[in-house]
Amino acid sequence: MDQSCLYILRVEVGLSFSKFGCYGNRFRGLVHNNMEEDKSSAVLDSSVSKFQSYEDYLSSKLTPLDLHYLEDEEMARQLLELGSIGGGEVLKKKEFEKRKAAAEARRHSKAQQKTLANAGKELKDNFLKALAEREEPHRSGKMASIIFIRDRNARGQEISGYIDYSHRLQTEDFEPYFSGKKKFLPKSTDLSFLNWETEHVCSRDSPNYHVIDDNPSGMVFKNKIDRKIVDVTPKGPTGDSSSCTPIKTDLYMQVVIFDHINRRRN
What we know:
This protein is α+β, with helices and mostly antiparallel strands and 266 residues long.
């Protein structure tokens, strides 16, 4: 008997056992006690969360040998769910959905527990309000705004620059900015920086943007997630999924926010 016949025979035998409830779950129940199952529950919950659907979960457990001999992935998934093929533990659809929902609930709970830097602050300036409105979507990765600021530094020198807001949120404590203890100003480590008095000019890429400074119309930025161009020049349109909002503020000489909605490429 060739290997293909042996494989089909093993599947058929497994099916007959599963129909009569004499194989699979009963055997595993003798091996694993309740304490071990409870201990591994949290791990299983987190492991199923990476799958978009129950079908994806089943497909991840199929071996190349299963697909080679059965030649039908849908049938292979059905046999796997019945316990006719595969040697490891396979969750039923109802249990899979239950664990996935539990994992999502825990993730959402943890996200809510993270307090935003602007929480509890009484903000009066329009720019600080704009930063606060955008804090959560930037921390969650939904947005990637670029902020242009022109103002004076502590020495009274006029400076300006383009800032990757998401990057600064990740690398700095924003509580002093929202509480008014510190001014949010461009730095030489931002996307671009210019000191008008010393004529010190520099630009550099950030984790979210490539700087394109050889554009004939002026500097533009390329988003690293969706590859979209954010055009900050006065003449051209801002670009797909982007918008330009000048902010009236009493704290800074000039502020313009270029909002960009991250669109992941398919």
